[in-house]
Amino acid sequence: MRIGVAVAACVLVGTGTAEAQQLSPEQAALIEGDPAAAPQRLELRDLPKATGPADDLFNGRNLAGWLPWLGFADTSVTFRSNPGAEPLGTRADWRRIFSVEQVDGGPVIKAGGNYWGSLASTGDYGDFHLSLEYRWGAEEPGRARNNGVVYLSHGAPGAAFGTWMTGMEFQLEHGSNGMAIPMGRSMRAGATIAQDRTVRYPFRVYRLGGRAIDLANVNPAYSVEHASDAEKPAGEWNRIDLYVVGNRAIHVVNGVPVMMLTDIAEIGPDGKRTPVTKGHIQLQAEGGVTYFRNIRIEPIKRLPRLVAVNP
Predict the structure, then answer these.
(1) In angstroms, how far is the first alpha carbon of the chain from the final one?
(2) What is the pLDDT of residue 138?
(3) How far is 237 from 221, CA to CA, in rounded Å?
(4) What is the chain's Cα-based Rg?
(5) In angstroms, rounded to a whole number, what is the distance separating the alpha carbons of residues 299 and 245?
(6) Quick check: 261 pLDDT over 70?
(7) Contact indicator for 281, 130 with CB cutoff of 8 Å
(8) Count of C-beta atoms within a 10 Å radius of residue 46
């Protein structure tokens, strides 16, 4: 998910390129004090062993074990505070967006089309290692290659922007694979970051040992980019691994760790912060066609160790 940010009274901020970006005073103030990013290569050590049998979330035949939901007929209203419409939910033919097909000699879940939505696992999970493979379909004019896997998902379908369950997103947008985005206004997560003006606002990339922030989807700086780009070229299969223990998570792309989140939580109407430690797995549809396969989850009791090595 990528949300556009409206710009009010603006200041010009250099981006590290020949261009400058216009930022509102609020945007500029929010990232003031972010340290400059230095090269950093991350590795995982001491991978956890499964503490029980693995579960294949896709049976290769149909979408048993998954619940579909579609957002708005006009996707442009998705992130408006008053969209002026009701989500399609399950009233529309969701099979045009989510289906089982044969690709590259095997079964896949196809996600993508005219509408945005989610395919949520019926099971909910905590303390797990999720792995899956995905690749993009053919490039489609007017449709960005933007998608995601939303984990620790909970609550009602469509509670987040009329389209998804509330949770935390492992972003699969082409060029931003592994980015972290809170899915819903109430979600929070801790991350350590540095500033890199070669990426989009808020110019924040994950850095182990960087500035500690509380990530929230209620201000202009709602996302943190991956530590490095480990995605393969469009059309090739990528593997992602997601480790979650308690309310902490590590995002891994093609064997390269790119993000660590801590203190994943939800803010209630009373302002109380409650840790989120269990939830469903959502496969998003948000633009170009994406194929998913080999979706497997297994229980673990600890996270791998994340370390920085010389670049």
Answers:
(1) 30
(2) 86
(3) 30
(4) 19
(5) 9
(6) yes
(7) yes
(8) 11
Q: Which residues pair with 251 in a beta bridge?
A: 242, 259
In this prediction the pTM is 0.92
Q: Is the model more confident about 133 or about 23?
A: 133
What is the pLDDT, as a whole number, of residue 18?
A: 29
Express each pLDDT in 201-226 by its tens digit. 999 999 999 999 999 998 878 899 99
CA distance 190 to 181: 11
Under a CB-based contact definition with an 8 Å cutoff, are residues 184 and 268 in contact? no
Q: Are the C-beta atoms of 226 and 213 separated by less than 8 Å? A: no
CA gap 178, 169 in Å, rounded:
9
Q: For CA atoms 277, 163, 62, 138, give the dihedral sign.
A: negative
Residue 309 burial by CB count (10 A; 0-12/13-18/19+): exposed, middle or buried?
A: exposed
Total residue length of the chain: 311
Which residue in 152, 186, 194 sits closest to 169, CA to CA? 152
